[in-house]
Design goal:
CATH architecture of the largest domain: Orthogonal Bundle
CATH topology of the largest domain: Cytochrome Bc1 Complex, Chain D, domain 2
Order of helices and strands: HHHH
Bound molecules: heme C
Helix content: 40-55%
Radius of gyration: 24 Å
Distance between the termini: 67 Å
CATH class of the largest domain: Mainly Alpha
Number of helices: 4
Number of domains: 2
Mean pLDDT: 85
Number of strands: 0
Largest sheet: none
């Protein structure tokens, strides 16, 4: 009887700790997934002005499927997060400035299509304004 009294609470403590570990892992797992399916922020939440918001629409339509804007993970192409906040472009190593990025958008690169026949100069300017916010 005495042994039983010692054993039962002990096994409870063990289960409790194990349960806590499982729960912690589950929470960590859910929060890791949470990063990827994060709710889409509105233009206002991102603090975008009218031109940047217009650029975002273009980005969503033409660029998003290959380039993640707010995560550093690659899709078919490199992430666009902090594209203008770093000195050089990720693939070519060219300086990260409007002229070089405009060229990439117009002419394409490797598996990236060219957009000179698709987007107007104004649309490319809007797109650049948005890329500067990433
Ligand atoms: C079909 C997929 C695809 C689409 C759509 C696409 N890209 Fe790309 N992009 C790529 C790939 C792949 C690369 C890497 C090219 C390489 O290997 O040099 C790239 C590279 C880039 C680079 C970096 C170039 C460098 O010099 O390092 C920029 C900037 C870029 N894309 C912007 C855009 C923008 C803006 C759009 C929308 C107008 C867009 N991309 C649409 C696939 C795509």
């Amino acid at each position: 009887m005495i042994g039983g009294e010692v054993l039962i609470p002990h096994s409870f403590i063990f289960n409790g700790k194990l349960g806590l570990k499982v729960l912690t892992l589950a929470i960590l797992g859910i929060s890791a997934i949470g990063c990827d399916i994060e709710r889409r922020k509105s233009d206002a939440e991102l603090g975008l002005n009218a031109q940047q918001a217009a650029g975002r629409r273009i980005y969503d339509q033409y660029c998003d499927r290959c380039h993640a804007p707010y995560s550093s993970r690659g899709r078919h192409g490199p992430s666009m997060k902090h594209i203008f906040k770093q000195p050089y472009l990720p693939m070519s190593g060219m300086p990260a400035n409007d002229d070089r990025v405009r060229d990439v958008i117009r002419m394409g690169r490797d598996k990236m299509p060219a957009y000179s026949q698709v987007l107007t100069e104004q649309q490319i300017a809007d797109l650049l304004a948005y890329l500067h916010t990433l």
